[in-house]
Amino acid sequence: MLMTRLDRFFGLTASGTTIGREVIAGLTTFAAMVYCVAVNPMIMQEAGLDRASVLTATCLVAIFGTTVMGLLANLPLGVGAAMGSNVVFAIILVKQMNVPWPAALALACVTGVIFLLMSLTRIRERIAHDIPDTLRIGIQVAVGLVIMFIGMRNSGFVVANPSTFVTMGPVGSPKVLLTLAGFILTPVLIARRVPGSLILSIIALTFVGLFLPDGTGHTITRWPEQVVAWPQWPHETAFHLDPMYLVHHFFYVLPMLFFFLCTELFGTLANLLGVTTAAGMVSESGRIPRAKEAFITDALASIVGPLLGTSIAAVYSESITGVHAGGRTGLTALVIAGGFLTALFFWPLFMIIPPQATAPSLLMVGMMMFQGVRHLDLSNLKESAPAILTFIFALLTGNLINGMAIGTFSYVIMALATGRRRSITPVVWGLCVIFVLFFVVSANLHGHHA
Length: 450
Hints:
The chain is mainly α. About 70% of the residues lie in helices and about 5% in strands. It contains 20 helices and 4 strands.
């Protein structure tokens, strides 16, 4: 009876799949995604948020988003805290721009609301069409490079140096050696297509850390007092949003609002297209099945995430592992959500994971984002220069907005100088205005602080 109802609700037979195959697919995707429960709290902790609360919020958002994806869109996709956006949230928005984290959460939540409205109208398609590929790729690669750097810095693999600004940490240090081992091990696991490569690497490095000294009389990894415990409600972060800061500093935070919107738009679109294409679901005309429902789900999860205490959510590209395992319907998504529900009860184990164990996963996430470079025609400077300037300036100035602004300005000047004025869309002109306003407001703010 239950099997018949599941078959009818999810259309298992029509999709050429079975309950057993969907369960295996869901577990496969969960194994590929669960590293976010270790990595996201560590990143958000940089912004001053309580790590244990963010851990719970990360699991809850994944449970909510993935369940809605399964029931509303009937797609085999996992949804969770967006990697990349969390780094921008913690490092750029909070640490560099000095936006208090409750205000940053409010900004992320507003992004979700705007994206929901965009998903219910045709505006989403218009903006997606109006942003040039070169700028989109430049921003994606810039975030990838920032993620790699954060992983290396947090683990002690790179440290400050007065003459070269950054250098490698002491080679004989156990922390550096453990991170280096991870940098070698993790790409090998991924290259060999080992299921759950990232979480396996995190587990292995955390375990080895139990036997290595950290230089303060302790070991790098410290054994928890308990392995299983009741989940803790995220008291320290849930519903701590400060929307009034956004009202008072609107033009200052506007570029970041645009960044999060772009991430939502292109991240979800790219992952949705990649996973559904792998599953053979895309029509001959290129239409993605139930795309509107998938975008609405993403938007809802991006509203719930900041309310609980983490950044915006996204469809995970790791969902493709479940598709390769045979997942075709929303039942796969419900199994993924069940995995995160289980993870909630093992939070003490996730809390002992050291930054040295998560750094290789950040490196790999950054590498995957860096792969956007392959879509650039490097022999055509009119196309490639804005993208390269975007990620080089973002990396070397340590500020994503600097890169986005320089890339946008260079795109406009290149287009005007080469007689391609018509290629400058209204969205790009609007971006130029946003960045000019940002720099004016920023200069005034720094002038007051000086």
